[in-house]
Design goal:
single chain, mainly alpha, 6 helices, elongated
Length: about 110
């Protein structure tokens, strides 16, 4: 390199620009928490209605597994006993049902609440 000045100038400008961008994206700590935004009272009902509509579209076995595992909060063994099948069947049906529900991730998040 015969003249390092253009290279050095570019390094300085890039470093400054990167620092400036990072600085504005950083969160600042605060002693007081902001008040939560007032939620829509009907949003919970809409979400639950959408959730049950989508779960209702699953095949009967997958729907039963989802309800027993996530709504009734049964273990794999307990759900298998209720359905009269092997625990492996419960696991595979759960995986297949969740794969179908993952099209809309908000629905899966609702199941895991």
């Amino acid at each position: 390199m015969d003249d390092p000045e253009p290279y050095l100038r570019k390094v300085i400008v890039t470093t400054y620009t990167s620092w400036w961008r990072r600085r504005w994206r950083r969160e600042l700590p605060s002693d007081e928490l902001p008040e939560p935004a007032a939620g829509d009272a009907t949003r919970g009902f809409d979400d639950r209605d959408s959730l049950w509509r989508v779960v209702g579209q699953l095949p009967a076995r997958q729907r039963a597994v989802i309800v027993l595992r996530f709504y009734e909060d049964l273990s794999v063994a307990e759900a298998a006993a209720v359905l009269g099948c092997d625990p492996g069947t419960v696991k595979s049906q759960t995986a297949k049902a969740l794969a179908k529900l993952r099209v809309d991730e908000s629905i899966v998040k609702e199941l895991h609440r």
